Amino acid sequence: MYLFIHRKDLRTDDLRAFEALHRRGGADIHLLVIDPAIAAPDRLQTHSGRTFLRAVTRLAADYRQAGRTLHLLHGDPVEITEALLLAMPIAGLVQQADFTPYAVQRDTAVEAICKKHDRGYKTYDDAPLIDLADFGQFARRTEPYKVFTPFYKMWSGYMRQCYAPSGSIRIDDLATVDELESEIETRFRLPAWIDELLVDAAAQEADEPSPQEQLTDFIEGPIADYSRHRDDFAVDAGSGLARWINHGALSPRRIYEAVAELEEAHSWIRQLAWRDFYLMQARQNPDFFTYERQFDFRELSEHHYEAWIHAQTGIPIIDAAMTQLRETGELPNRLRMVTAMFLTKNLRCPFTKGEQYFRRMLADYDHTLNRGGWLWSSSLGYDAAPYFRIMNPVTQSMTHNPSGSYIRKWLPELAHLPDKIIHQPRPEAIVDLKQTRAHAIEVYGRMLRGYEQESASPGTDEPV
Ligand SMILES: Cc1cc2nc3c(=O)[nH]c(=O)nc-3n(C[C@H](O)[C@H](O)[C@H](O)COP(=O)(O)OP(=O)(O)OC[C@H]3O[C@@H](n4cnc5c(N)ncnc54)[C@H](O)[C@@H]3O)c2cc1C
């Protein structure tokens, strides 16, 4: 009997771990741990926390429908693992690999517990579309790519020649253990308040199309106009699938296979390559999660942070975007870049503040992709925006939504303004865009001086 723990793979098909369990045969324990360290009460009430709960209820329903058992426990994954290993005849633990700092620390401890009790421990890196070790060999390099365009070229070649397709084993093909040792059930039982949140989430999901249906709808319709409309934030031509991809509710491989042959999917597939580019950095760029420790942020300040989160900057497109984010948990990619660059450059606030705020707000929050986006905007990390190229939010607004319909929607108090005026800074704007831009270039220039910025083609590789 093996212990399989779901993490960012909340689905019941196309998991490398399922294939391994199937090869071994027998009934296994399938478990999802709600870990208070990352799913604290306040977190589960945010947009990103609610998405997680929605994905959990879908997963539980899929198990039920297949007549299989998914155990849900609440507590420290290390303690839960040890308790299970001591109480049940488990030969080893199988799970998806995860590379965020918390995950690495947690999994190191889990692995040590398995070793201590002389049980097996095996992880599968199912998140990227490419197998990163294999990709390195294919590309004949030991160093990770630091610029997106050559990475993407190689990525495309790899996907054509070496792509490992999705697996056929579904939960129906596996046997699950129905009961855990009763002391464990009691000790790690979900608290009532989580049960209630799950009931609410299930009720919400009942009215929503499934992730798979959303994918099909996207492929049958909007994908054809994706490249034309992606930056048109009033339309937001994105698939809206990130939230499911990030929790693993949709398999990236199945998504890729559904669109790989479609001519019109070309630019959308490129976005999946951006995702792999950041996943690669999380695994292979030792600085990815620690850039903030390498720079002297003393010239930066949190002075305007509150105005930014409360949509009170007086720059209409920024305030409209921050309103949409707070109310819905949604924000089109271009506006993520514009608001992030405004915070880090015009307001000269450390990127980590914005990163933390997005963590709570984004319905599709993902630690790695969020960090990638914030590093890009603050000119840190591989292939980031050059520090001297600062997006002007007014120009961005006029270019991508000339009619101002987006601002009118989210800031109805400005709806009466004519098209030409609506984009302009309000009299109460907290900063002057021109002055703060010039100042940011000086400050970031000083801050980054001496730091090797390895972007070979500055400014060409926007994640668009
Ligand atoms: C500051 C900032 C923060 C961000 N935080 C997150 C985050 O927490 N979670 C998240 O999923 N994405 C994040 N992104 C990337 C991107 O904005 C979202 O993936 C995208 O807007 C999600 O919309 P969608 O589901 O319609 O994706 P689509 O536009 O339909 O794209 C399909 C998929 O491609 C990938 N993708 C798309 N754009 C990017 C990108 N720029 N970088 C990497 N992968 C991409 C995603 O997996 C996405 O689901 C962030 C970007 C920035 C600039």
TrEMBL record:
GO terms for molecular function: deoxyribodipyrimidine photo-lyase activity; DNA binding; FAD binding. Its EC number is 4.1.99.3. Keywords: Chromophore, FAD, Flavoprotein, Lyase. GO terms for biological process: response to light stimulus. FAD binds at residues 226, 268, 271-278, 364-366. Residues 1-129 form the Photolyase/cryptochrome alpha/beta domain. Pfam families: DNA_photolyase, FAD_binding_7. Its cofactor is FAD. The keyword Flavoprotein applies. The keyword Transcription does not apply. Binds 1 FAD per subunit. PROSITE patterns: PHR_CRY_ALPHA_BETA. Belongs to the DNA photolyase family. This is Deoxyribodipyrimidine photo-lyase.
